[in-house]
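Protocol step 4 of 6: structure prediction from sequence.
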Amino acid sequence: MARMLLEESLSLRIGSGERRELGMVYADLAAVETKAGNHTEARQLRLKSIAIKQDLRDWRGVGPAYHALGLAAWLQAGCAAAHCYFIAGLPLSVELRDLQFIAFCLEGLARARETLGDPQEAVKLWGSAATLREKTGSPLTVDFRKENEECLARAKASLGEHAFNTAWSEGQIVTMEEVNRCYCTTS
């Protein structure tokens, strides 16, 4: 039902020239496709939404859209692609000082880094994200908490308790300037 209504809205928006609304409909359709397990279609819709948002300079919408692409890639076990999408969304979130989406991106990067074999960096990222979540009072949802706990357990087993605790502590004192320097600059 939701897909049918959104597709109807999409056809109306395409002809009307309402680009901002068109970008929102693409994003909503992408969410429906993701829930249905149609990740390839969802990715294409999100990329269309991002292109429109970038064209309109709607930077508040671009960071979360990249985060959603990262999650979709993660669900498809595309850790390298997920890493790239989280990296793409992070600078916009930092520039806008959107602490919630900075935390989301750091957690996404952490999951990707852990899976790609860098548990120490992953734990630092989780430590940074945890500090931001504490500051903003925005806890993880149950689903994300479970995923993070599983990845954290693997990282802890890989590093050992002392190295894990050290990396976590290092992550908790990372400043926004350091996040920007380490993850938001292009070489």
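Step 5 (inspection) to follow. The mean pLDDT is 85.
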